[in-house]
Amino acid sequence: MTGPGESSAARLLSQAGVLRFPSSRLDLFIMRDFLGAEECDDLVTIIESQHRPSTLADSNGDDAFRTSSTCDLSPQHPAVAALAEKLSRFSGIDPAHAEPLQGQRYEVGQQFKAHTDYFEPQSADYETYCSVSGQRTWTFMVYLNNVNAGGATRFRAIDKTIQPERGKLIAWNNRKPDGSLNAATLHHAMKVRAGRKYVITQWYRERPWG
Ligand SMILES: O=C(O)CCC(=O)C(=O)O
Ligand SMILES: [Fe+2]
What we know:
Helix content is 18%, strand content 28%. It has a single domain, classed as q2cbj1_9rhob like domain (Jelly Rolls, Sandwich), CATH 2.60.120.620. The protein is an alpha+beta fold. It has an 8-stranded antiparallel beta sheet. The protein has a 4-stranded antiparallel beta sheet with strand order 6-12-9-10, with no helix packed on it. The two termini are 24 Å apart. A hairpin with a 7-residue loop joins strand 1 (18-20) and strand 2. The radius of gyration is 16 Å and the shape is globular. Fe (ii) ion binds at residues 115, 117, 187. InterPro entries: Oxoglu/Fe-dep_dioxygenase_dom (IPR005123), P4HA-like (IPR045054), Pro_4_hyd_alph (IPR006620), Pro_4_hyd_alph_FE2OG_OXY (IPR044862). It holds the Pfam family 2OG-FeII_Oxy_3.
């Protein structure tokens, strides 16, 4: 069964160039060249033009936990609207279930330590984040540039490290087939060692965004 805010392995694998990482613990998919060079460069320009310090949904007292910058991408921007539509067609998820797209920008030394994208049900702010749209379901993330050194995304539980590569998309299901949260989705955006790193993330929700 696939809920309204969910993609599926069958959907993703039916599209040319999509590979599945072999793991019984986590549904993780990779596609190179999801975006072309020009699309990536346009999105990097937008992120460069406007960003703020990234924040955490559940602050844990570690000021070094997430040190990147975030760009709230305007859905009015044609390049952003085009990407949102492309992701929705690709994922098969109704765009009503999509959060607004976000860009992340990492300078040398910046990172996002190991975390999950779902909201912790025990956290104080769980209701604030999830009462309207529900839990996060799937994550789709696109690397917008080749990083000179560092900046990989590491999934520790399945021992998989993905190198940033311009235009490459990765996608994973934050939940297990039975709908429970999947702790094996734990991932770490490792420190950039040289150059900058830019990504865009699309998170989807159980219910329409609102
Ligand atoms: O930048 C990355 O490699 C991962 C970013 C991430 O995990 C997030 O923004 O939730
Ligand atoms: Fe994440």
